[in-house]
Amino acid sequence: MSIVLGPNQYGKAEVRLVRVDRDTPRHRITDLSITSQLRGDFRATHESGDNTGVIATDTQKNTMYAFARDGVGSPETFLLRLARHFLAEPQVTGGRWRAEQYGWERIGPGADGGAAGGGADAAGHDHSFVRGAAERRTALVHADDAGLTVLAGLRDVTVLKSTGSEFSGFPRDRYTTLPETDDRVLATDVTAWWRYAPSFADAAGPADFDERFAAVRALLLTTFAELHSLALQQTAFAMGRAVLEAFGDIAEIRLSCPNNHHFLVDLEPFGLDNPGEVFFAADRPYGLIEAAVQRSEGGPDNPEHPVWSTIGGFV
Amino acid sequence: MSIVLGPNQYGKAEVRLVRVDRDTPRHRITDLSITSQLRGDFRATHESGDNTGVIATDTQKNTMYAFARDGVGSPETFLLRLARHFLAEPQVTGGRWRAEQYGWERIGPGADGGAAGGGADAAGHDHSFVRGAAERRTALVHADDAGLTVLAGLRDVTVLKSTGSEFSGFPRDRYTTLPETDDRVLATDVTAWWRYAPSFADAAGPADFDERFAAVRALLLTTFAELHSLALQQTAFAMGRAVLEAFGDIAEIRLSCPNNHHFLVDLEPFGLDNPGEVFFAADRPYGLIEAAVQRSEGGPDNPEHPVWSTIGGFV
Amino acid sequence: MSIVLGPNQYGKAEVRLVRVDRDTPRHRITDLSITSQLRGDFRATHESGDNTGVIATDTQKNTMYAFARDGVGSPETFLLRLARHFLAEPQVTGGRWRAEQYGWERIGPGADGGAAGGGADAAGHDHSFVRGAAERRTALVHADDAGLTVLAGLRDVTVLKSTGSEFSGFPRDRYTTLPETDDRVLATDVTAWWRYAPSFADAAGPADFDERFAAVRALLLTTFAELHSLALQQTAFAMGRAVLEAFGDIAEIRLSCPNNHHFLVDLEPFGLDNPGEVFFAADRPYGLIEAAVQRSEGGPDNPEHPVWSTIGGFV
Amino acid sequence: MSIVLGPNQYGKAEVRLVRVDRDTPRHRITDLSITSQLRGDFRATHESGDNTGVIATDTQKNTMYAFARDGVGSPETFLLRLARHFLAEPQVTGGRWRAEQYGWERIGPGADGGAAGGGADAAGHDHSFVRGAAERRTALVHADDAGLTVLAGLRDVTVLKSTGSEFSGFPRDRYTTLPETDDRVLATDVTAWWRYAPSFADAAGPADFDERFAAVRALLLTTFAELHSLALQQTAFAMGRAVLEAFGDIAEIRLSCPNNHHFLVDLEPFGLDNPGEVFFAADRPYGLIEAAVQRSEGGPDNPEHPVWSTIGGFV
What we know:
Order of helices and strands of chain A: EEHHHEEEEHHHEEEEH
Strand content of chain A: 35-45%
Distance between the termini of chain A: 26 Å
Largest interface: A-C, 97 and 96 residues
Number of helices of chain A: 7
Oligomer: homotetramer
Shape of chain A: globular
Helix content of chain A: 10-25%
Radius of gyration of chain A: 23 Å
Number of strands of chain A: 10
Structural class of chain A: alpha+beta
CATH architecture of the largest domain in chain A: Roll
Number of domains of chain A: 2
């Protein structure tokens, strides 16, 4: 028995790339943080510091900037281009390319600038923008022997229902003190990843990926808003199911939803009632609900798609 | 000579208060982080741990929650109510109450939920919301022997111009390497505080403060968007001047604007030009431009209003 | 084909638990952030909001605090106790319990308080402490049908070599501009997880886990310090190998090491040389080196231990 | 009446400078984040974008790096050198230079590396280091018409007493629910700034500033540890007084101390007592205690030193 190198990957992380499309006076900006990680035959550098095959992480960064000269398109198509470029090197047998996109809106002609919306790309200033919500759009391309897999997602879409949420019927043991409730605030920061079926991923262009992202995001929000919730688990599953029902070429979706507790403040000591109006929003601890929604042929009895083991990285 | 207590203040910081107005099925939410700090005769606790006069910070927190039972109104009016309450105690001779407000938008009926806007409060879901931009609205009430002063502001309004910004004509010394440019990306996170004249602060109700905030925010954004910028200093000053010109009852305004550098990437090594299209967005270091805009009677030759020395706290 | 629930887990995250051991006047403190996540038969709550089997996340939190009344021991033993408790419920078939521990040192009798060390637990104040380095000790217990697995680790151990690091011999393509160097600053924030063989995990008590943690940490640091580095990959692999060589009951170890770039500042424009003395420490982007070190019987050709797919969670 | 420019300053913020002293094989590293801000006659750039007098923030950054070629010395002496350099320009009439220093310790020869200490600079590796506590040392030089003022300080020195702290005797009103306690956990993150008398600041060299910093830090910690606390206000004041008593050439000191609440968990529902052993460490809200300690000739009836109004910046 000896000590050997196991799975490994390396690359450049969080490359901040801002692309200005300025072919007309009406500029467009694409604001990304991109991470490139390569897998393959890199034993020599680990075992002896022989870097013969190590495409420098600096080179990976340069490649992103050089490719951006041709335009970014959608995050998914840009990552696919990077993936194919690096996979052309013989020592590279796989990898993982990931992007987070920050949203910008045109500063509007009306009184409320960007944050209150307008949003309509038809209006607003030609080359002045205001940052939108803290949420980010995400994309990931994973490559292994089986080929390329494309994920899309979003992070930290913070949503809240001020009613229409219950939580009751749970078991009570020696350590249970939580009262049942038929009306609570439900709040979470939705993070989701969905995996495109190859039929979609192979054929889609930038506009397809953009449009699909917007449609999935809207569906997630609408489902959160409209479902009367008996548990955050129910809400999360319903959000995922709605996406799979609407889009046959999305193979599966995973959601991670912290339960951002809003505790009703006890105002009785002050001689006041509190009919669901005054809340303390806690930071920690928080509930954490995580679930995959799948199609039955890829369900619990089937092996997990390998892309998921790489989502969290090694740590 | 002896060692004595100098200026001091104490209180409860970052109380997270969420108020749901639910008198009709169309809920409204107000999401605040509030800090209360009292000044006055607190020598005994400092010198000997005698807490006879020390209104517990826990009590300050409770007071916020109890008052919220009556509704919050605008952040400014809520802070004024807190200030007047605590100033009624004889040992309290001054203080500082501050709020940050997080924005929420109704989840929309259309495809783009909240982040892309709609915003129009007329549309959207009755009790389901999505968090808006990362920026926060701020408010501060300061009390001293001279009375109450009201500031309003905003934080981290991130804006960017993809053209319409130059920087040249600066002096060149031994340590100057920066090239002059007649076209650069200009990006900043606007933080601003403006001081209301007593004439406004004393008479305004919640709707007045809300409306004024929205109008100032829009004017700051519009000015940023429309000015052809020769320096971030010029832009910041113009933004402040526009506000003072538009609103005679705003006494002065201060702006703090980091220069979020976007460096044009040198693509020449790759045989490519880069006509203002591919940028590296740097985190640190950043420029930092800070300026007060005042009316001439309160200008450089006049003493600074005491509220400003408390803005940054002691540290 | 239908839409079904895939892998899922839920629980309470980042429960901040501080335990003071005060059986003698010489107190000891254990400062933890703990996350408990359960897996099992939770289809009903996802599909219909039936919470009959859902042990409330609030109950999971309460259980931690109640168990802490008996003492915490080491993070690993505390998590094992939690795991066994929840696994006794029939609907719970697996789970994941994780802790981060913050370090505290006694405020010392000497001039340099705690941060400069002393550290020796024999010295220092009985009940006054100062927070140590930003790094955290971590532990994780994973349960599935195959039983319990114990990982230990550390996060954000920031280390730097001011010489003794090279990087050269890497391939040069169209996008390569990085010069080779035979003397650079090498800096990283080490995050590592190692998996204990069942032989150790099943028999170890709190003192064994504590002692082993300290020994692994020291070995990682010493190896980083002493190896003349030709690549961060080589350093990371050597650190892991040293651990496996020293401890036969550690089955494998994974390291994630950002390359915190320190760029030599070009002082030539100012008429100065820079013989490895003045550096700009960059925030982003950074290199990212990740590797598993294994024993040959668990090597690349063998299936991955299932614990690793849960390390990053779903997202 | 017209609209005019009020107080203003500009510069480069958070320049990350790492200096390696390598004249012998036993290297030393100085790790700083430096901010330079100039004040003076900068009306033209604000009013019309005329940058004739604007020393570019990029030039300010370059100057730091160039000066570092000669060595850094202590943060205070380095900032003084920067201040004097920029003040030599006629349009610069004042400014503010600030540094934060990160601590590093040599990786030790023993089993416990750096975090557990050793610390002794006599031991440990020649050129391999581990980052120390999260706390930072700070320094600030302020220049105005009255000359140069030097502050030194520290940030986020997190300390905790597991006993020896009470809080009682405070007034009870309608909104008071906090019980009195004669034994609680007291925890805070100490931030302090002290102002050196010109007699010290003008004569001190790097070693003097370093030694003084270490002595003040130790005294703050020791006082926190040894005082039986009746209120955090009492503790903070005692810490400051101890410094002024020990060092006649420190003119005044300001402390900002959040009260990091540790709430005793109620275990009664689980049939358990909790004799000061199991705590929930809360994030927000927190108490916030801020106080200046002064000498009587500079006490409450005397005007505040102008440096303090610049500590928090404009916002």
